[in-house]
Model the fold of this input.
Amino acid sequence: MEETLRELEQRALQELKECRNPTQLEAWRLRFLGKKGELTAVLRGMARIPENERPRIGQLANEVRDALEAARTSRQQALRREERDRRLAAETLDVTVPGWRIPVGAVHPLTRIIREIEEIFLGMGFEVREGPEVELDYYNFEALNIPKDHPARDMQDTFYITEEILMRTHTSPMQARTLEMTYPSVPVKIIVPGRVYRRDEDDATHSHSFVQVEGLMVDRGVRMSDLKGVLTVFAKGMFGEDRQIRLRPSYFPFTEPSAEVDVSCPLCDGAGCRLCKGTGWIEILGAGMVHPYVLEKAGYDADEVSGFAFGLGVERTAMLKYGIDDIRHFYMNDLHFLRQFRRAL
Ligand code: PHE
Done:
């Protein structure tokens, strides 16, 4: 019996050395240490040996089992180490291989221009507000001195939703909304960026939807020269220190006097070119002194306070600044166009 155990141990250890992978190792374990394994088979023979020998043989059998278990564990660890070393040797890392390129989006040029405009006016103490695109006829027209039969309604062909509800045709309704809300306090100094809608045929310079930035400043003693000063700071901040502005008389029902504002052509510096059609000037916004009617509709006393307002076309500004020749580029989602703005955040 003792012999058999010793022989079994030797043979098992010998065969263990030949196990090359986890599958073989498991087969070895079942064969020698398993319930139906050789060691168990030998131990079954215990019944046949003399009683006084049993403790010694039993102990020996335990020792053999422990030795085989220990040998198996260390063989298993050795195999794992080998396997890891093999993998490390095979998996070389080439640090010169180019990395994956992660596609990064770009801020849309209109968003970029709006942010720049906001930055300039924040610097002059204006607040940024937003208003509804679906608007009441009252704020879009009535409160701005454009009654139902007023010919100025033809200036802006309107998308109506019901008789009294429409898509705003300009951001000027926020003049009326803001004054109504802030009455009776002054000063009011806001800009309002936002999308507007008009029933226009789309072409290179017209779109049924575009973006404006409204400006409104109301206080005691605001004068036309304040408007000119603020717009000069804006034009220089947006198009460069060399730019000039000029005001031409115009007409809007909600401002009196009204003006159209030109900036000296950034392309030819006022000399006259294709972009400015030889005039040296490019129109960028409508403006004027807030009409007393608008102030009084909101409750203000037009003898006490005065103000100016302006409406700036954002696409126009972007086209001028970036030399874009077709307004439709802003809505086509052509990646070749949009990617040009990728660097900026
Ligand atoms: N709302 C006018 C337009 O869209 C522009 C404007 C705004 C004119 C404010 C004067 C004052 O044409």
About this structure: The first helix runs from residue 2 to 17. The chain is about 40% helix and 20% strand. The two ends are 85 Å apart (CA to CA). The beta strands are 127-128, 134-136, 165-167, 188-197, 209-219, 245-252, 255-264, 281-290, 306-313.
